[in-house]
Amino acid sequence: MFEARLLKASLLKKILEPIKDLVDSANFDCSPVGISLQAMDSTHVTLITLLLRSDGFDSYNCDRSLSLGLSLVSLNKILKCAGNDDFLTIKARDEADTVTFVFESPKSDRISDFEVKLLELKNDQYNIRDSDYSAVVKMPSAELQRICRDLSIMGENVTITANKEGVKFSVSGDSGSGNITVRPTTDTEADLATTIESKEPVVLSFALKFLSNFTKATPLSPTVKLTISETDPIVIEYKIDDIGYLRFFLAPKMD
Amino acid sequence: MQSSMWSFLQKKNGEAVVPPPQPTPQPKSSPKKKGTTTTKSSSSTTKSKTTNSIKSKVEKKVEKEQEEDQEEEEEQEDEEEYIKQEEQEEEEEEEEEEKPKYTRLRKRKTMDLDEDEEDTKKDKKDKQDKKEKKEKKEKKEKERSVDAFSFMKQKQAAATSTKKNEPLSPSPAKEVKKQKIEITSSSSTTTTTTTTTKPNLKVKEEVMEEEKEQEEQEEQEEEEEEEEVDEKIATSNVLDSLIDDIEDDDEEQYSEGEDEQEEDEQDEEEEEEKPKKKQVFQRKETISKKKGTAKTIQADLKVLAQYNPIKDAGWEKGNPLPYMVLAKTFEKIESTSSRLTIIEHLTNLFRSIMILGTTQDLITTIYLSINKIGPSYLGKELGIGDKILISAISESTGRSLQFVKQELKKVGDLGIIAQNSRMTQKVMFQPPPLTMASVLAKFKQIADLSGNASQKKKSELIKSLLVACKDCETLYIIRSLQGKLRIGLAERSVLLALSKAVLCTPYFNKSEFPPKVMDIRKTMRLEEFEEKLLDAVAKVTRAYSQLPNYDLMVPMLVKENGLSTILHDCSLEVGVPVKPMLAQPTTGISQMLDRFTDMEFTCEFKYDGERAQIHCLENGNVTIYTRNLEDYTGKYPDIIQNVKKFIGPTVKSFILDCEAVGYDPATNKILSFQVFSSRPKKNVTMDKIKIPACVFAFDLLYLNGKSLIDEPLVKRREVLYENFIESPGVFSFAKHSNISDVNDIQAYLEEAVEGNCEGLMVKTLKEKSIYEPSRRSYNWLKIKKDYLQGMTDSLDLVPIGAWYGKGKRTGTYGAYLLACYDEDNDEFQTCCKIGTGFSDEQLSMFTETLKPHVINQPRNMFRVNDQIKPDVWFSPTAVWEVLAADLSISPIHTAASGAVDPNKGIALRFPRFIRIREDKNPEDATSSEQVVDMYKNQKINNTANQSNKDEDY
């Protein structure tokens, strides 16, 4: 028996927003530790990992691990039926072929439940170890979203150049080229500062399409962490308050 | 088995659900799969250790050698020379050590070239060798620092084979090589080149012009060799070694060339093997069919006959059948124009599958080879539009849409573009290799998608296929998706190969492995085998024409004694449409009489409507199929309603061959085809029908559970008349008359034409009068009314090129190049340039409809003389009916070239456009065989020379 209760259904909505256009269906792996997800887009360019720790839930009950294969398209449709402030309960019996989503309005005057059929999905799991980084950039997530939006006008690929002085996002297309440079903020006030931790200068190119898609996760977190390294994919991490994170790994373009 | 692209990412052995990794810096100790050493940190030495542990047979000496080699590599010395020295040394060793020596040689080489690689890739070794070398030179310094990147590249290149699997691309040469070493050591005076252990299969692709020159030189060498070599060694071995010598020499040239001037390699093959350089888009040229001389083809066939279906298969028993095997076979097929070689390649693949795979694997492979996803009568087709493919290619390769479109204009083949533009985008994780089953399953999924958002889903599925493709797989996946494999592999050849495979390797007892009889050809004389093969092909072809469904037929064929009982096991089935029997055209009554001398025959009206095959199951379900086996049940609700009216009381199930014709109930007259074809085609309801269809039945193939096609026509007709009831305006028997006098027939023909019929069908009545599905038989002849006007039968031809119009025709195409279809070679052969018979509206309409099909260069499958240079080329889509004054031998047109004159083809004189044949696909166009027949027929007429009338029997 698996049962997990979230105080805000909107959290799941926000998580799904950047994922649903990249992945059709995915396994939500539920274990006593929490709910996790690993999924790749059909071209295998990006890997998405999600972790929602059990202690972040309002209540969490999981006797044995189980995998919920869900069509993200249908899940998204169902979540549209939930109010943002609704409580969300996810329920599944062991060996079940369906999972139930229960939405409960804050005043408890409206309860809806939806049963979704589970899919048999191949369960490829990957171990991910922390890699050496060349640069770690923390910046306001809204800023990254804006950069991606602005650069998308000019071209399809973005080149990220990071060193101690700052991070430069450059794009070039048929109509011209553009650069946006982000510098570390000097006043270390609040969480919204931009910090750069750079071991060595690094230059990499990425498909802007994917980055733009990732920034749909902006509502999840005010800041975003970019881990850039010459030898590994870029990691874009959105911390989700008190419960876990959503990470995107993106393989670079070959120049 | 997979390999991660990235050092930080490892595939779990994936049994239970594992909680996500916590962000701890400790390295995970989850079990790695064998053969995937992914951690960046592992140095080359540890890697070679892994290699050693995996291949436990390696001796210590080898390790030493390996170390030497590594040093050598760092010094960048010429490897080839070194190997040669080594070989010479080893040659001096004792003969007993031959085998281990052989392996060691292999091993050592593998190691010295695969610093980072664990795979023993015998086949691709030499290619990798080159790659490796080049990479090394290009980024000699980079290599250490950017290890992961170069590592990744190699993984991609090498990913085609896995540690567990045997090297892909079956290698008939491999076995030969072993024998050859024996030869050399027994007569050590022969040239040292023979010991170079580099199996290379791409005989055809590599054997280019230079080699032809070499061949003559080699021949002399061969003669010398022959004297030295033991008499016991069969000549075939010598022939093989000849080919090997050629290959080896060639490779040496490569390596020398590499050292001297790396960049200036002209050879196409070589260019393909180059690692895809950054930013440079390398164009893989369309594989051009190699027209080998009879001698080279013979040599190729000899090599292919040595094929060992187990060792050379490219995968191991019990493992899933990799798609790569088929892609490699396609590549070989595409590179030759010799039909014999094509069939041999496919036969060998089928033999391997029969031994190592399941019957289902064989069926899957057949469907993939004929580019179908199921029985053709079910109408499921791939034919994915270029638009979806372009976007899928651009997304899976990371190239821009614009780029792909631009390239499409230049190259003209999306498959080649896809193959060439692989990987400007790194991937997170290489998906597992494609298997035949997974490819066909995906194809089916794609074809089944319809309705809302199906385009996007199709695109996703295609992308997931493309991302798993390696090498030439991409090319053939894309072409298969387009529904145009276009490699010169006709379904007929597939059937032939299937028959040959079943005959060569009869393997029924699956518990016995390896099979007792690997190749039956070794146990019998060639003539005997040829005779059996002819018989087998005839049986299989007929069985398939009776039951055109591989899912049902193949299991019957591969069971014990399947070949002898196949005709019985695969008889007609209600609900499975068969291709109708077709008639040969004639130029007149006299010609017809010549054919049927001393035979009883019957004349039937040839109604001008649509051929319809009506199937009625015992449960009363009725389906109607066209001559192309399309399901037209939805087009004829009136006929279905009428079935009850015209069947006799004892009729339970039947297959009726008939013509559906428009009928005017008011005047009780038959309507012309033009009027009839204005009926709506799909989902017709009774109230929409303005022109009722009347069924004119002329043959009965099946009745109440029994096939009748082996009965003579007179008997079939009798049963037909007994069990069906005429009903005016609904159902009639085709009007017939058993007359034999020329004048009577002439009068009957005129009567038929009066009655709005196309002409007469003349059929044998007793002798040779069985129903032959899918055959254009000489036992059925048609005399068209055109004959009365002094014209021959029309031809259905395919426009493949056009010239821009001048003067009044400016802005449209003014003239078209037409071609007929050669079934044996899957080619379109030109037979005339046409510019008359078009109305102005038609001209502009054709320009509009054909413009989207313009391609930049002629397809490989076009056989066109260099002197013909149309302004634009089309991919074959339309079929036009064309009339001509007569046919003549032409030095520039290629239709049926070789059949009448060794170098010249047949052309139409004064061709004139009649109409579009919408009911025909380009492959249904008039075949070159028919063109030959027409040409010969008119010759009979013109010269009144009747001596050669029977040559086609």
UniProtKB/TrEMBL annotation, chain A:
One of its GO terms (cellular component) is PCNA complex. The keyword Oxidoreductase does not apply. Residues 1-125 form the Proliferating cell nuclear antigen PCNA N-terminal domain. It is found in: Nucleus. GO terms for biological process: leading strand elongation; mismatch repair; regulation of DNA replication; translesion synthesis. Gene3D superfamilies: 3.70.10.10. Transmembrane segments: none annotated. Keywords: DNA replication, DNA-binding, Nucleus. One of its GO terms (molecular function) is DNA binding. Residues 128-253 form the Proliferating cell nuclear antigen PCNA C-terminal domain. Belongs to the PCNA family. This protein is an auxiliary protein of DNA polymerase delta and is involved in the control of eukaryotic DNA replication by increasing the polymerase's processivity during elongation of the leading strand. This is DNA sliding clamp PCNA. It comes from Polysphondylium violaceum. The lineage of its organism: Eukaryota, Amoebozoa, Evosea, Eumycetozoa, Dictyostelia.
Automatic annotation (TrEMBL), chain B:
Belongs to the ATP-dependent DNA ligase family. Residues 938-947 have a biased composition (Polar residues). Its EC number is 6.5.1.1. Coiled coil: none annotated. NCBIfam families: dnl1 (TIGR00574). One of its GO terms (cellular component) is nucleus. Residues 36-55, 153-162, 184-197 have a biased composition (Low complexity). CDD domains: Adenylation_DNA_ligase_I_Euk, OBF_DNA_ligase_I. Pfam families: DNA_ligase_A_C, DNA_ligase_A_M, DNA_ligase_A_N. It comes from Polysphondylium violaceum. Residues 65-97, 207-230, 242-272 have a biased composition (Acidic residues). It is found in: Nucleus. GO terms for molecular function: ATP binding; DNA binding; DNA ligase (ATP) activity; metal ion binding. GO terms for biological process: cell division; DNA biosynthetic process; DNA recombination; DNA repair; Okazaki fragment processing involved in mitotic DNA replication. Residues 686-822 form the ATP-dependent DNA ligase family profile domain. Residues 18-28 have a biased composition (Pro residues). It catalyses: ATP + (deoxyribonucleotide)n-3'-hydroxyl + 5'-phospho-(deoxyribonucleotide)m = (deoxyribonucleotide)n+m + AMP + diphosphate. Keywords: ATP-binding, Cell cycle, Cell division, DNA damage, DNA recombination, DNA repair, DNA replication, Ligase, Magnesium, Metal-binding, Nucleotide-binding, Nucleus. Residues 119-132 have a biased composition (Basic and acidic residues). Residues 1-285, 919-953 are annotated as: Disordered. This is DNA ligase.
